[in-house]
Amino acid sequence: MDSIPQLKPSKPPFLPLLFIASCVLRLLIPSPLFESRHELSTPLTSISRLRECAWMWNHGVEVYDGDMCHHAPGVVLAYSALGRILGGRWWESGLWAGIDIWGGWMMVKISRSLRLQGRQRDLRGRDLVVAAAYLLNPYVVLANLAHSSSSLTNVLQLTTLYYALDLQHSVSCEVVLACVGTVLMGSGFHTALTVVPTTVMLTAPNWRLFMGFFLAAFMLAGALIQHNVFPGYLANVLIAPLTSNVDTSPDTGLWWYFNTQIFDAFRDFFTWVSSLHLLIYVIPLCIKFGSTEQQRQQPMILPTALAGIVAAFGTYPSPSHSALPLSLLSLSPTLLPYLTHPFLTLLTLLFSSILLPVFGELWLGRGSGNANFGWAVGMVWVLGQMWGIVDLVGAGVRVGWDEEGERDGERRRGERAVQI
Amino acid sequence: MTLLSYILLGLLAHVVTASYSELLQLSPLPYNSVLASFTFQTNGTISSNPDCSHYDLLPRPLGQLLQHTHTKELHLSFLAGRWDEQKWGSLPDSGHRTGGNGVELWAVLEAPTEALSTTHWLELNQALSGLFCASLNTLDMRRTVRPIFSFEPEGAYTGVNGSSLHVFHGALPRETVCTENLTPFLKLLPCKGRAGISALLDGRRIFDAQFQSMSITVLPTTDAGGVSVTQQIDVVIDVSRTLRKRASDNGIIKPRPGEEMACDEAKGYHNGDTCFPVENRENLGWSLEEIFGKSVPGRCPFARKDAGRGDVRYVVNEKVDIEPQPFEWTEVNGRQSAHYTLKDTTPFTLLSPRHPPSLAAPPTPPPILASRSLTHHTPSRAGMHLTLTNPSPSTPLRISYLESLPWFLKPYMHTFHTSIPDVIEEMYILPAKNRERGTHLEMLVTIPAGRTVEVEWEFEKYILRYTEYPPDANRGFDIAPAVITVLTIDTGTGTGTGTPYQMRTTSLMLTMPTPDFSMPYNVIILTSTVLALAFGSIFNLLVRRFVLVKDIKAAAGAGVKKPRVSVLKRLVGKLKRKKE
């Protein structure tokens, strides 16, 4: 008997509906409420600064001469060109909604390519969850409404991850371009810290080739920008995230208040330590989570952990930077059962997310209250993120050990284990 | 040979002598005020050779300072109080001798390179701060701008290359002006405040006034090395307050009793408890002794005698009956001016009679009315609002506006907008650089006749470092006044008339968010704790190896297990063993 061809039941188009709904969400909520909030925008990502950069560029004032503009030249040029072509500011919400849609789409593509390569179990409905984890993530939405350029940075990082993952074990110009573009258009050091090690690990064994291409392209682009078009680019855009000292405006991180209060004798030291200390996490995490065995099973642990560390302990952080690791967590679903204290982390993050705008309103909006309150809330926010990262790393290590045991024939999953 | 050269030098010194003249101008103003302007002018030469200079009337500290820093022109002014333009009209001397709140200094320095001129400017500030007991040494490059439209060299420059002249401008709005600035000012005069009109300048009277301005202007003249140094003090004294202070026992003015107040009885609510003060119907009479506490003791012997000019002038709109009789009444700019000459040793006093306020009304309104204020002031952001009014009904007004903002105030020029479009002819902006220079904003504005232009823009404030806050951090920071110069308008039918008018707006108080000043150690240790926690946790997770619990139990079970005995039983056991 011939087998009757079975019709696949048609699934309702949830994914396009999700995209449309998130787009509408971003277009409907009025953004001026969020634009100047200190929790959502930092001096490196604020839209007011970007508008000022565009104004300076349009009026022939040196963009990187003073200390106003820290945005990448590509972003400034694109924004000013759009402003001139389209006129006014009505298109901003649409542009940012489009950027987020692109980010959601990249998440879907990463998830699909992970499934295709058999790196994860085949789970249906995964696309929808992954896209929703990015598009409906409250920090992503709020950062988008604030028109912060970290939306663009997050999306560029996702793009680089997709290309690195998709074209496994090969170096192609998409990867290099994506990586260079991310570093140049994003905030330099921060994006480089997440994207470069991950790409190196994922494009192994050709990593030397990749590093060579990357460094050459990066240096060439940087030199051109510095000498010809934008003097001061080096100091304002690339070095600014490295020195937490440039701007002591309040944000949600560790370092702004620290730099206000530190004694002058130690200032230089801590200025550089505040960002360079992140480098100590890169190599150990790459060693632990970058080996081929781990990569086959959970390739997304490394970028999530690195992004989380940069967002929590780096200079000029904001919840929009923490949105990326939270969203990337959805790409490692096998880790979730291994998390030991997700509830604590979630509650801490929720608690501090509610108090951060309260602080903003009190101290910066009304002039009452105390700076200590805001700093303490920032500490709690960082602490919550830290617990999340530690949980994630612990889960990743345990999962790796379990998989290793599986390969050796020993059954370790579900058994109690301690670390000694 | 040397004797001959000495004789020649001596002759030369007498050929090029300095001259000195004094002038006191008293003009009654409406609402019982008097504007007293003391002008002391010295003309002399400063030789370019520092080893061979002769100073007699020209003050030597000033001369040596100008010579050392190659300063060609100097305008230093100290101001306390506020000039009320709506009551008193235009600023005296078209506002050129009056600076902004606090101390304002602008100078023209000659130097071949810009770096050298900057060095000389800083040296000039430090020397002037010592000379005048003002903290001008804090006028470093963070508060200095190089103006483009607003300040042009005023003196006579012959044979000097224009590109070697550098104009610098700086202001300290927070500086308090008091007797310690007046005393060195008077020390520069030949008579040093002991003879002539400078004897009237007593700190307690001067700084009790509503408006006090002291200025020194050094301009080059057409002679080689010649300078003219003008020292001017303008004081607006409130006559009724001074008289009441004098009449009271201990200098404390008590409120006027109800019977003595002049109330407007036409108002509906007028009764024994409510009084609406009536406009002043009559200006009180006063004498020099009542206002300044003494009369002029005689003339300064060094002052030049100029019969046509007079040493003391009394300026009103119409002739009044003043005592003593002036030697002449002349008409100056549509007003009547009574001239007096001082006798060498005879004290001089003046008695101004009661007169209707119309006699004292200012003849011309100022060409521009301007005010600047802060709007929607939150600790992190605020806006600046500028109102420029052209009172003239027929002529448009072209002004240049100079603003020098501190570096921790970041203006967002993309929010800049004016209420009337296309009034800004040209704008120059130099963005601020953290801790190095402030924002320099200068623009040329054309205000249409009879209209008011409102300019608004937003800015953001920074949080400063712990040590950058002054001791009274919650008072706020002063923003220097903006300088508005009315430029002569080329109407096409002829050049503009009169000298350009210059005025300053008020200074602004900017409250900045302050950190907690008691917390540096706590902040540092808590931040470091969080970092240590993070690093320690991640390090432990990455470095340690996993072992299954059941494997540990198995390994532990292989050895001898000690029975768990309670502490109490062990102690009892020990005691028992001791006993045995």
Structural class of chain B: alpha+beta
- Number of separate helices of chain B: 11
The stretches of 5 or more residues of chain B where confidence is low (pLDDT under 50) are 491-498
Which residue ranges of chain A are poorly predicted, with pLDDT under 50 across at least 5 consecutive positions?
none
The gyration radius over C-alpha positions of chain B equals 34 Å
Proportion of strand residues of chain B: 25-35%
Query: What's the story with the biggest beta sheet of chain B?
Result: 11 strands, mixed
Order of helices and strands of chain A: HHHHHHHHHHHHHHHHHHHE
Assembly context of the chains = heterodimer
Radius of gyration of chain A: 22 Å
Total helices of chain A: the number is: 19
Biggest beta-sheet profile of chain A: none
Helical proportion of chain A? 55-70%
Largest interface: A-B, 67 and 52 residues
Tell me briefly what this model is.
Chain A has about 425 residues and is an all-alpha fold. Chain A contains 19 helices and 1 strand. The N and C termini of chain A lie far apart (about 60 Å).
Detailed description of the structure:
- The complex is a heterodimer of chains A (420) and B (580).
- With 420 residues, chain A is an all-alpha fold.
- Helices cover 67% and strands 1% of the residues of chain A.
- Chain A has 19 helices and 1 strand.
- In chain A, helix 16 (301-313) runs antiparallel to helix 19 and helix 18 (342-366) packs antiparallel against helix 19.
- The longest helix of chain A is centred in the last third of the chain and has 38 residues, at 371-408.
- In chain B, strands 5-6-4-3-7-8-2-1-10-12-11 form an 11-stranded mixed β-sheet. Chain B has a 5-stranded antiparallel β-sheet with strand order 18-19-16-22-23, with no helix packed on it. A 4-stranded antiparallel β-sheet of chain B has the order 14-15-20-17, with no helix packed on it.
- The longest helix of chain B is centred in the last third of the chain and has 24 residues, at 520-543.
- The model of chain B is unreliable at 491-498 (pLDDT under 50).
- Chain B has helices spanning 2-15, 60-68, 85-88, 114-132, 179-187, 203-206, 239-247, 288-292, 520-543, 549-558, 567-579, and strands at 19-29, 33-45, 71-81, 102-110, 144-145, 165-172, 211-220, 226-238, 286-287, 312-316, 328-332, 335-340, 351-352, 369-375, 381-389, 397-405, 409-418, 424-430, 439-447, 452-461, 477-479, 483-486, 501-504, 508-510, 546-548.
- Chain B contains 11 helices and 25 strands.
- With 580 residues, chain B is of the alpha+beta class.
- At the A-B interface, helix 2, helix 12, helix 14, helix 16 and helix 18 of A face strand 17, helix 9, strand 25 and helix 10 of B.
- Strand 1 of chain A pairs antiparallel with strand 25 of chain B.
